[in-house]
């Protein structure tokens, strides 16, 4: 299973906020699926799936929000 450090490294490699968000979302979903495999009720699994489907459907808006709420990198000397 991919570790959170591996996932964060993949997110950092992406060139845009949207690509990073997609990578993060897919990685979190995969980790959550691995952790909860068989332990969620069908209703709980449907809720988890709904959350990730909503993020995917709204990825452009979510990516814009990520950019808008991410502080600019400080200038280098």
Tell me about this structure.
The chain starts with a helix and ends in a 9-residue tail after the last helix. With about 80 residues, it is mostly helical. Helix 1 (about 5-15) packs antiparallel against helix 2 (about 15-35) and helix 2 (about 15-35) crosses helix 4 (about 60-70). The protein has one domain. It has helices at about 5-15, 15-35, 40-55, 60-70. The chain has 4 helices and no strands.
Number of helices: 4
Structural class: mainly alpha
Q: Mean pLDDT, as a whole number?
A: 80
As a percent range, the share of strand residues is under 5%
Helix content: over 70%
Major sheet description: none
**What pattern of helices and strands is seen along the backbone?**
HHHH
Calculate Rg over CA atoms.
Answer: 15 Å
Number of E-state strands:
0
What keyword list fits this structure?
4 helices; single chain; 77 residues; mainly alpha
What is this entry, summarized?
The protein has about 80 residues and is mainly alpha-helical.
Write the topology of this structure.
Elements: H1 4-13, H2 17-36, H3 42-57, H4 59-68
Helix pairs in contact: 1-2, 2-4
